[in-house]
Write a structure and sequence with these properties.
The complex is a heterodimer of chains A (186) and B (197).
Chain A lengths: L1 H34 L11 E4 L1 H7 L7 E6 L4 H16 L5 E6 L9 H8 L6 E4 L4 H8 L6 E2 L1 E5 L5 E6 L4 H12 L4
Parallel strand pairs in A: 1-4, 2-3, 3-4
Antiparallel strand pairs in A: 2-6, 6-7
Chain B lengths: L1 H18 L19 E3 L5 E3 H4 L5 E6 L4 H18 L4 E6 L6 H11 L4 E3 L4 H6 L3 E2 L1 E5 L5 E5 L14 H10 L8 E2 L3 E3 L6
Parallel strand pairs in B: 3-4, 4-5, 8-9
Antiparallel strand pairs in B: 1-2, 3-7, 6-10, 7-8
Classes of the chains: A alpha/beta (186), B alpha/beta (197).
């Protein structure tokens, strides 16, 4: 009787141990699945580093008008206007090309820059300009530009600037400029 | 015929002058242009004139901002330059043209950060006159108020990898009686927050 009781006790302990292990394992599995991306959540946007040569290339339109926004995470008006830029990108997707060029420090290329763009749900191709000489980089963009951020430029497919805005964009104006260009000439 | 051409040229010149934009734009105030004397209030409300503030060898007008991180990165360098060249007759004058920054904020920021006077450009009238758009942005005038250099302080806003000290080089050249090689240089910075923008 005593032996049977001991066997039953051992079996009970074994089952309890198994149950504990099972619960613990399922908990670990749950926490692991939480740490990976949840459905619908996007990976942070990758930001590509460019130099002056890359800048020239980036500012060359293909067959569509090209909208370019120069910005930085340290620039308040740049951050403030970003939701409007994301709206524009959604409205004209496929009709124009739209890129953003960050002037943040290179150390931010995998940190604050993609973090901010992801928060904004920005889908435009994103670049970070690291030039040896700011003056030369600014000269590539425009003779009228002293380097103040933000700056937004719209190019026609031939590369001609058709809209130039230092400071926050005014949605109605930039929309009108894009529409004007997209409308077929009678 | 010659007379007729002269009249046409005069009319065209007049039109160009009348139609020229009044709002500041890059290149509005070109190198070699003479600045008329001006007066602006300092952070305590006292009117200060350029002719009183400038040194015997001229002055630098630097557009500043209390909130711009790029300006913040340059504060120490600006104070060092001001200290180095005050004894050589070049004085520094800060100007704040941002309508988004309150007088109290600019006053306390200037007191904490600068060893030179900061003037308040209400309504960005002075910034418009020079065509200044970015902070920090420097304009170096000689003793006769002629603009000798305009633009960035140096070529690295972080201060860690400066290879060209534009403003210091301009001072040294002018003080030595030599021509300034680089009279214009741009750099990325914050936009001047103008009224109505």
């Amino acid at each position: 009787m005593l032996i049977l009781h001991r066997h039953l006790k051992a079996a009970f302990c074994g089952i309890a141990l198994l149950l504990c292990f099972s619960i613990s394992s399922s908990g670990q599995a749950n926490s692991a699945s939480k740490s990976s991306s949840t459905p619908g959540e996007k990976k942070p946007l990758s930001v590509k580093q460019i130099d002056i040569v890359g800048l020239r290339k980036a500012l060359t339109p293909s067959s569509k008008p090209l909208l370019v926004n120069f910005w930085a995470t340290w620039c308040d008006p740049c951050r403030e206007e970003f939701p409007d830029l994301v709206k524009l990108d959604a409205e004209y997707k496929g009709k124009i090309d739209f890129i953003t060029i960050s002037l943040d420090e290179l150390s931010e290329i995998n940190r604050d820059v993609p973090k901010f763009l992801t928060e904004m749900k920005a889908e435009m191709p994103a670049y970070l300009l690291k030039a040896q000489d700011d003056d030369a980089a600014i000269a590539v963009v425009s003779k009228e530009w002293f380097g103040a951020l933000p700056l937004t430029i719209l190019y026609d497919p031939s590369g001609k600037q058709i809209y130039y805005r230092q400071g926050k964009v005014k949605l109605d104006i930039v929309r009108a400029e894009i529409e004007k260009f997209l409308k077929p000439v009678n | 015929m010659l007379r007729k051409s002269a009249v046409v040229l005069a009319v065209l010149t007049l039109f160009a002058f009348v139609l020229s934009p009044t709002i500041g734009k890059a290149g509005d105030f070109a190198i070699g242009t003479t600045l008329e004397n001006f007066s602006l209030p300092d952070t305590n409300g006292k009117m200060q004139s350029f002719s009183d503030l400038k040194g015997k060898n001229g002055a630098v007008v630097v557009f500043l901002s209390a909130q711009c991180p790029v300006v913040k990165a340059y504060n120490e360098r600006l104070n060092q330059l001001a200290a180095d060249y005050q004894s050589k007759g070049i004085n520094f004058i800060g100007v704040n043209s941002n309508h988004t920054e309150s007088l109290e904020w600019v006053r306390s920021h200037a007191a904490e950060n600068y060893k030179f006077p900061v003037l308040i450009d209400k309504g960005n009238v002075f910034a418009d006159k020079l065509g200044a758009t970015v902070t920090p942005e420097a304009y170096y005038f000689d003793s006769k108020n002629v603009l000798l250099y305009h633009g960035a302080v140096d070529n690295d806003r972080s201060g860690r990898a400066i290879t060209d000290t534009y403003l210091r080089t301009a001072f040294d050249s002018a003080l030595a009686g030599k021509a300034i090689e680089k009279t214009r240089a741009n750099a990325f910075g914050c936009s001047i927050k103008r009224v109505g923008e």
